[in-house]
Specification:
- The complex is a heterodimer of chains A (263) and B (273).
- Chain A is globular.
- In chain A, helix 3 runs antiparallel to helix 7.
- Chain A has 263 residues and is mainly α.
- Chain A has one domain.
- The model of chain B has no long low-confidence stretch (mean pLDDT 88).
- Classes of the chains: A mainly alpha (263), B mainly alpha (273).
- At the A-B interface, helix 2 and helix 10 of A face helix 3 and helix 9 of B.
């Protein structure tokens, strides 16, 4: 574990050097994420604008929720973006061979080799949107509330990455699991909306099956409705423990049955 | 003469059709993913209609809105051309060298391949899914206003949408000659086209100034026009103008792409042998 931690800055510096060799490309990637998120926020604005009131939610509170959702999503994007490669190509191309021959945890090597600097753009957008809309949400801000929200965001990163790892690991069985990961990942976009109003069946899925609603939407709902946010933190922690255990177990099962492709 | 020259390109259309047939399972899964996404959007709209004092939003009742989101998701998937992806792969793997050596127009080759993909996607996945969506909207939600001639016209209008999409894909795909960040370019293009063409939400709820500007851009003709036509919401006069706008954009985009391509090929770098 200590060795992995010591090596991480080296991986980050390697990523930074490779990113800096393609400056224009990095700018395009950051721009692409900013445009996608701006479109997403504009969509929320247009949809909410069609009704005088959307339950307890207004555009300001939804924009704040939008900003909060971006934080765990961005951090996950920065650290574990290569799980997409696992889902789409790595198994089919036999890319894991190299990681299995080195004296380091293969999962660690696989995700540590890429530090996605463009995720910082998403992170900055999330923070900026939260700061802009926080005063207009009517939330009674306390120190405990802010701390609770930060804890929820950190736990949200673990949940997000675990869901990604879980569905990307399906590739060990089906060779390319990109379509599954993509469909599940796009569910996270709906955590930006009042999940609770979208029918009991969907809300139950979003809270208890693929719990994007639990660790992304629920913390902000607690703040808006005045419920103690530490309840959300507790639920997020339970979700994080279950998801991390489950995803690591599936990864371990998968890597045991991994066969190199090739010639 | 021109017909004879074009004849050879129909081989690419055939290959486009065959590729989709070979990967029909994957195409169907992508389309299914898009429809699931659309159904979730439908749930969101259901919640919005529950809170709305009006039963009509932006000119749509809830069953119409549901059909709109399902249909727009299918149209967006079916018209999605792979021209940009092909250019990216050709440049990345150096195949572009071989392409340039052949006595075949690269633009026409990609265009005719996309035409084949469109026809096959529409026939294998699009039409069956549209029929299923329509049955659900008609029987379960009481959708009304669907007329047979609009449904028939929907197909050629969607073909125009596919051609517009392909032209934009070819134009922006040429950035592959200059940047490695084509994932960013392609996702940005997709998101913007989705938003401006009304594939996520109907353009009717956009501010009126935005609607007036968008009317003269190629975007609404890509998704909004065929979907609204299907739902019986496009008057004949508007249909005529929109089709003319669409054809004009196909010509303009291809002329720009033609000149851009002449510049782009000078940037080709192929390694290896």
């Amino acid at each position: 574990m200590l060795k992995e931690l010591k090596l991480y800055p080296k991986f980050v510096s390697m990523s930074l050097r490779s990113t800096l060799s393609y400056k224009a490309d990095s700018i395009i990637m950051i721009l692409s994420f900013i445009v996608s998120e701006a479109v997403s926020l504009a969509t929320i604005y247009l949809i909410v604008g069609t009704v005088p009131a959307f339950g307890v939610w207004s555009f300001s509170t939804l924009a704040f929720l939008f900003g909060f959702v971006l934080i765990p999503k961005a951090i996950d994007h920065i650290f574990t973006d290569d799980l997409w490669i696992l889902a789409y190509w790595a198994i089919r191309h036999g890319d894991l061979d190299i990681y299995l021959t080195r004296p380091l945890n293969p999962l660690y090597q696989f995700v540590a080799k890429t530090f996605k600097w463009d995720g910082l753009g998403e992170f900055a957008v999330g923070i900026a949107v939260m700061c802009i809309f926080a005063p207009q949400t009517g939330i009674a801000w306390t120190f405990g509330g802010v701390m609770g929200l930060i804890v929820c965001a950190v736990l949200g990163v673990f949940c997000f990455s675990s869901i990604k790892l879980l569905f990307a690991s399906l590739a060990f069985w089906v060779k390319t699991a990109g379509i599954f990961l993509n469909t599940i990942y796009s569910l996270s976009n709906y955590a930006k909306y009042p999940v609770r109003y979208m029918g009991k069946a969907f809300a139950s899925i979003m809270f208890f099956v693929i719990p994007f609603g639990l660790f992304l939407y629920y913390p902000v709902e607690c703040l808006i409705t005045g419920v103690n946010i530490w309840w959300a933190a507790l639920w997020s922690a339970i979700a994080a423990v279950i998801l991390v255990t489950l995803s690591l177990s599936v990864w371990h099962l998968g890597i045991k049955r991994y066969e190199s492709s090739g010639n | 003469m021109a017909r004879g020259r074009l004849k050879k390109y129909f081989i690419f259309t055939k290959s486009g059709i065959q590729t989709v047939i070979a990967y029909r399972g994957r195409v169907a899964l992508w389309c299914l993913g898009a429809v699931i996404n659309a159904l979730l959007m439908g749930l969101l709209w259901w919640a919005i209609y529950e809170f709305s004092p009006e039963s009509v939003i932006g000119g749509y009742t809830f069953p119409q809105m549901l059909m709109y989101v399902i249909l727009s998701a299918i149209v967006f998937e079916v018209i999605n051309s792979d021209s940009m992806g092909t250019i990216v792969d050709d440049v990345r793997y150096g195949l572009i060298g071989m392409r340039l050596m052949k006595p075949i127009n690269y633009r026409l080759q990609l265009g005719f391949t996309s035409l084949g993909s469109f026809v096959a996607c529409m026939a294998i996945v699009g039409i069956p899914m549209i029929i299923m969506g329509l049955i659900v909207a008609l029987c379960a939600f009481g959708l009304s206003g669907i007329v047979w001639y609009n449904v028939l016209l929907f197909l050629p209008v969607t073909l125009l949408s596919a051609l517009v999409y392909d032209s934009i894909g070819f134009l922006f795909g040429q950035l592959a000659f200059r940047t490695q960040a084509m994932f960013g370019v392609s996702s940005m293009t997709n998101v913007l086209i989705g938003f401006l063409s009304g594939s996520m939400i109907p353009l009717a709820i956009y501010p009126s100034w935005a609607q007036s500007i968008l009317f003269y851009t190629p975007f609404p003709t890509m998704v909004s026009l065929p979907v609204r036509l299907f739902l019986g919401q496009v008057p004949w006069s508007e249909l005529g103008i929109s089709v003319a706008v669409s054809i004009a954009w196909i010509i303009v985009l291809n002329v720009i792409a033609h000149f851009a391509y002449k510049g782009s090929v000078r940037h080709v770098v192929v390694f290896g042998g």
